[in-house]
Give the backbone structure.
Amino acid sequence: MSARGHAFGIDIGGSGVKGGAVDLATGELVHERIKIATPQPSTPQAVADAVAKLVAQADWDGPVGITLPSVILDGVARTAANIDKAWVGTDARKLFSDTLDGREVTVLNDADAAGLAEDRYGAAKDFAGLVLLLTFGTGIGSALLYHGTLVANSELGHLEVGGMETEHRAAASIKDRDGLSFEQWAAEVSTVLIGLENLFWPKVFVAGGGISRDADQWIPLLTNRTQVIPAHLRNTAGIVGAAMAIDAGIAP
Ligand code: BGC
């Protein structure tokens, strides 16, 4: 099935392959989100097979937008964070399309997809100008949007701030690994945000990733100058952004 005004998005993460059809008028899923465990090892063909299973389960026969935790250029994965290293150099767009009977596919970075979704339907929908979304998870993902246009593959999780890559300083996984309190972790996040705001001067930061659910415990502790707001779409942002990308023909 594929319906007018609906597009299909799939978000590939370290633990789950999640997807669904999205109503592009509202940014909401039109049915329950479908989730399949990410195959281990998460090699390209194994993940593509999981994607095909998910699409079949949803009974969707139209084009599909898909995220990967990778830099994507012309459909090719150029990096692979938290997913099997065999992805580096893989033509992901071709692989997914071949596995889905030649249908149209677009592939984009996971944080870029979340940024598209939050910018249009979520936390940043009322902000004009530069929006910088950061996802705090195993690493730090980033999305830069200027008046709704995505500057793809920004990879600010790997920018050095204070002599350390931002994701090595302030990913949510660092809080868990080092047993940091919210106060201690928020100090590291502040260092990262101050470094980023001094370079990019965004109108607003959107904080995504699982830890954004606890936003009231750490956003008030931040000491940077730019407003920080928690993501609204939570665990559907990647799916919604992937659906937006295939609909709008965004193909980084
Ligand atoms: C990767 C990004 C990804 C982010 C979140 C980073 O380590 O380099 O491409 O968006 O993790 O998954």
